[in-house]
Amino acid sequence: MAGKSIFITGGASGIGRAVAHYFGERGWFVGLADVNDAGMAETAKGLAEGQFSIHHLDVTDRQQWKEALAAFATKTGGTMDVLFNNAGIGVGGPLEEMSDADIDRVIAINFTGVVNGIRAAFPMLRDTPDSCILNTSSAAGIYGSAGLVVYSGTKFAVRALTEGLDIEFRDHGIRSRALMPSFIDTPLLDGPVTGSNASTRETVQAAGLEITPVQEVAQGAWEAVHGEKIHTTVGKTAKRLAFAARWMPNKLRRNMGLARQRESIK
């Protein structure tokens, strides 16, 4: 098959949908993967006929990865220019109040699922010149976030994985990049915060932080794939955190602690 291809997990909504449309508009073949079949069908409506494939995929299931990628390979001639590990969930709240099930699920999807995808896609990426792994990390992977420590921990892990693989896979011609958006206007923000009646969206807005349009993340993904930077931050909050974490970490720590205190008083 002529042209370039991208395989996107979490392709049923949010960042995955926006990136699918952005790359599709530029002539790429798009593989959509998710557990939400109806959502993938909606995403596909924004893609040209014959320009996409749909794959039911639970990223924690290694066998499903093999089956999905085998089907994708039949559409692309066995090549994959970009693997976009984007599937993720966000569950927040104090660590001691989180359930074991929620903790295990966040780690399994947000980190183990990324590892599963990279291992499964490696042969296709290796056999495609100048291929790229793009992993969705987060602004929460820049500095640890109180009230989101498990989620934040997985995003730090994704960041470390990306950095290491950009070196480890260099001899195979595979680049590795991390997308680090701040709070993005996606359905993830509507999820509940453990121990609170408020949603993540309401908590973010109460803290005076910006919610970034998802289209900006799609553009950031394109720039990450075609650029030289390991980490691509998207949104004002992510850029400010990256600057503060590098140049004034103590002040950042104090300010985040004060913000946490104000939130607990409400």
From TrEMBL:
UniProt record similarity statement: Belongs to the short-chain dehydrogenases/reductases (SDR) family.
Chain ranges of the Ketoreductase domain: 4-172
GO molecular function (one): oxidoreductase activity
Family matches, as InterPro entries: KR_dom, NAD(P)-bd_dom_sf, SDR_fam
Protein name according to UniProt: SDR family oxidoreductase
Keyword Oxidoreductase listed: yes
Domain of life: Bacteria
Keyword Oxidoreductase: yes
Annotated SMART domains: PKS_KR
Keywords: Oxidoreductase
